[in-house]
Amino acid sequence: MAWDLPDLPDVGDLATVVNWAQKVRDSLTYLKQETVKAIFAPFTTLGTGAAQAANGNFSVVLLDAATEQAQLSFQVPNDFGSLSAVKIAIIPTATGTFDWTAYAEQLDNGEATGTITDSATADGQAATNNTLLELDITAALDGLGFAPGDWVGVRFLLDALTTTTEVGLVGISFQYTATM
């Protein structure tokens, strides 16, 4: 949505404090609106059996057996207001289904690991060969109660490969409402 300047009075029009203040208030309200932003973090730590690879032009972490996993960490942006969505992008190498669990943890300076955790899971997740799939893991993070500057760790665990043979983890999209 484009921002329009307030209607300015024509030469000779009477500009009262009331109507001018309303125009300024409307403009400031528009400028203070919250906007949705996103940050991306790739998977950087590989669990046993996971391998760094490429799928097309995408760098992925390949998981091809149950109990394989990968982790990532990121810091909550300074303009964070509220959580909108959290999605893990994957590119499977075969059409089929799989089961997964995502674990999340939030830390502030001086907090010990394992204090604030949550998770999300799905069984029978359908996937199509070499087609990007976004897994919504918002449920694993929406109860953590983080604030700007907090640290977040996410672990993706492949619970079972039912009819697909391999999934490639691209990374996470952390979508939030920013405050001005």
SSE blueprint:
Layout: H1 17-31, E1 35-42, E2 45-46, E3 51-55, E4 58-63, E5 69-75, E6 80-92, E7 96-107, E8 116-127, E9 133-136, E10 151-161, E11 167-178
What does this structure look like?
There is one protein chain. By secondary structure, the chain is mainly beta. It is 8% helix and 51% strand. It is built from one helix and eleven strands, in the order H-E-E-E-E-E-E-E-E-E-E-E. The mean pLDDT is 87.
Identify the notable features of this structure and list them briefly.
180 residues, mainly beta, six-stranded antiparallel sheet, elongated
Q: How many H/I helical runs?
A: 1
Structural class, from secondary structure content? Answer: mainly beta
> What sequence of helices (H) and strands (E) makes up the elements?
HEEEEEEEEEEE
Uncertain residue segments: none
Strand percent estimate: over 45%
Percentage of helical residues? under 10%
Q: C-alpha Rg, in Å?
A: 22 Å
Main beta sheet, described? 6 strands, antiparallel
State the end-to-end CA separation.
17 Å
**Average of the residue pLDDT scores:** 87
Tell me the number of strands: 11
Based on Cα principal axes, name the global outline.
elongated
Could you provide a short overview of the structure?
The protein is mainly β. The chain is 8% helix and 51% strand.
